[in-house]
Amino acid sequence: MFSEWFLLLSLGFGLGFMHALDADHVMAVSSLANQKPSMMRTLHFSLHWALGHGSILMICGILLLALGITIPSKLQHLAEISVGLLLIGLGVLCFWQFRREKITLTQHRHGNMTHIHWQTEHHTHNKKHDQNDPLFNKHQPVMVGMVHGLAGSAPVIALIPAVASGQILIGIFYLLFFSIGMMLSMLFFGVGFSWIQTYLQQHAQQVFMWNRYLIAGASVVVGSVWLWQTV
Fold this sequence. Notes:
Elements: H1 2-19, H2 23-34, H3 39-67, H4 73-100, E1 103-110, E2 113-120, H5 127-132, H6 139-151, H7 153-164, H8 168-203, H9 205-230
Antiparallel strand pairs: 1-2
């Protein structure tokens, strides 16, 4: 009995760990963290995204196991469309943030040599201003995670009847370990992403600026492709 539980929960944990690294998930968290890069913000977004995603899966799973209620396919399709729109919106928000920071591509000429680099007009923000900033809203990554959870719930929920074999408790613990694996995976990603961003910011400022624009643009492209495939 113990070995059976161990295998099932390990399966849930492993699948959740891999599921978190889906392209749309990674792109969404990267875009959220790209607005104002820092280790704490990235971990905050990673954790709250995972909480939003996991909570929706738990709710869908409990509804199925306890009441036999499944999420309507039309609602899941609408959530999939929302994922594409969210990715596009997050990319646009990044570009808007760059404009607020007054990040511009500047050309300088020294004698016969001309070079181009990114230039930022630095200005200080007090804590109160940052807390009122909509980009600092702690509910934003939770809502993004919930949309992802609803959009991707079908394949996860489909495994529950086979895993649980009629036992509600096993199904709930399976989803719980799936969500824990997903959370740890996204936190690991957040640490790695933040470390790279911090390193570039300190040692290669121009590459860091280009990288921020690349992430914003990639979010718009991935969202557009996702939307095109979904619709």
